[in-house]
Amino acid sequence: MNTRSPIRLALHSDLRERGDQALVYRDMVDLFAHADRLGFDSAWVRQYHFRGRRQGSSFDGGLPSPFVFLSAVAQRTENIRLGTGVVTLPLENPVRVAENAAVLDVLSNGRVELGVANGGHPAVARSLGMLRQGDTDQRKADYLRSLDILTGALAGEPLDPTDPEFRLNPSAPTLVDRMWEAALTEQSGHDIAARGNGVLIGSTQTVPAEVTARAYHSSAAPGGTARVGLVVHVHPAATRELALAEIAEEVEATYAWGRDWLPHANTLQEKAAGANVHYGSAADIVESIRSFPAFAYVTDLQVAVHFGTASHAHRVDVIDEIVESIAPHLGWAPALSGGEDQAQPRSTYGVFQD
Predict the structure, then answer these.
(1) pLDDT per position as a tens digit, 219-239
(2) What residues contact 329, with CB distance under 8 A and at least 6 apart?
């Protein structure tokens, strides 16, 4: 792999902060609006249902309705693309997902990036009136059926075989080309590439992120457009020691949540590495991300900034520093040309060349 196009920079949020959820949501809308002005390429949010750590949540809070939230972001922004990273498809009616995505795409002038995933905790599924049954193979087959229904609806296929005019409204045929799937394993990387979708790789994986990314790349169509999104936690501070102290609570909580499948770790530094957290001075963070094996495959670097940031103002400062002192040294240039009044968002993704 000798060359690759410049990366796209994204801001990612789980919206799992503790406290008043209304304030959490409003502050995140404001932060995405600021990211838009700074030239970030995309904004991504993850879906979480309900509150309660017994069901596997590592933090309180979360966002159950990403399309509603991103509609608010769309009204406050002009250029930044709007991604669901991800909607848990087995917990949803796939036709309703298609409808929600299509409406958001219309309201945002075609800025939606639609990410979905398999999964869903059984207790959450029951509470939503959905069934998650059978073994792993059965659940995968059910997911793929829902994915086929979703893509068919977006592509304009009839929703009732007896009525060829019974189709999705509003129509959204180009959304099929802006679909992404989350992957946790090597095989899912291969499978997603074969389906022609982008791959989303979270900050915590059951296999190393580079294994999934490499599998995706190896199975992508020759000469095709590769889309590899990777979530990384970023926390700048004057020193690595200070940064590590500031992120300790979130790192410990994340490791406690995933200790059964994250790499074995004893020290806080090892736990931070297992959760894909990059911290310290701007130069430290640049070197840390550059040396992360999966970064060689990334087209879309999704930075999360909630580790160690206790206020909205702090998060604003962090994304300012990312734009000024970190992302440009990782191969990113702002999606602004000729000043903010002449913003030109990128519309294509990088193509890997062997």
Answers:
(1) 998 888 899 999 999 999 999
(2) 282, 286
